[in-house]
Specification:
Helices cover about 20% and strands about 20% of the residues. β2 (about 20) and β3 (about 25) form a beta hairpin. Strands 1-4 form a two-stranded antiparallel ribbon. It contains 3 helices and 8 strands. The chain has a domain at about 1-85. With about 140 residues, it is an alpha+beta fold. Belongs to the cytochrome P450 family.
């Protein structure tokens, strides 16, 4: 979701004059937009390997335990007072669907070397979908 966030851009309207944390002044009725798609690819935020899919990025160094990231650095579900109310349910749904599918099937992207083209809309979608090959997993029976 860091590289392909569902909501790739978000805009807020300023109700009163305000100052951003970096000192930038914004006026009443101005719009502020942040681009989560671009933020997920920024070397200044994610390091020199920012465009690589590396699941280990999300685990601590000691025991491979999942570590949460600041929602201001990883704003896929927004941050602060406007945090997505469905975030926890979305994580539960993602984990259960992925676990059920991965247990039963091997899923491979057809063209792993090509970056998919996006279809810009309110939510970010892959133009034409993502072609994958799906094969049933070989069952490994335990003799215990």
């Amino acid at each position: 979701m860091r590289l392909y966030p569902p909501v790739h851009v978000d805009t807020m309207a300023c109700l009163n004059d305000d100052v951003l944390p970096d000192g930038t002044g914004i006026k009443k009725n101005w719009f502020v937009t942040y681009h989560t798609y671009a933020m997920g690819r920024m070397e200044s935020i994610w390091g020199s390997d920012c465009v690589e899919f590396k699941p280990e990025r999300w685990f601590d160094e000691e025991g491979g335990v999942f570590r949460t990231e600041s929602p201001f650095r990883y704003p896929v579900f927004h941050a602060g007072a406007r945090m997505c109310l469905g975030k926890e349910m979305a994580y539960i749904q993602m984990k259960s669907i992925v676990a059920a599918a991965m247990e039963r099937f091997e899923i491979d992207a057809v063209d792993k070397d090509t970056c998919p083209e996006q279809h810009m809309s309110l939510t970010l979608r892959i133009k034409g979908g993502l072609p994958v090959r799906v094969r049933p997993r070989e069952c490994v029976m335990s003799t215990a």
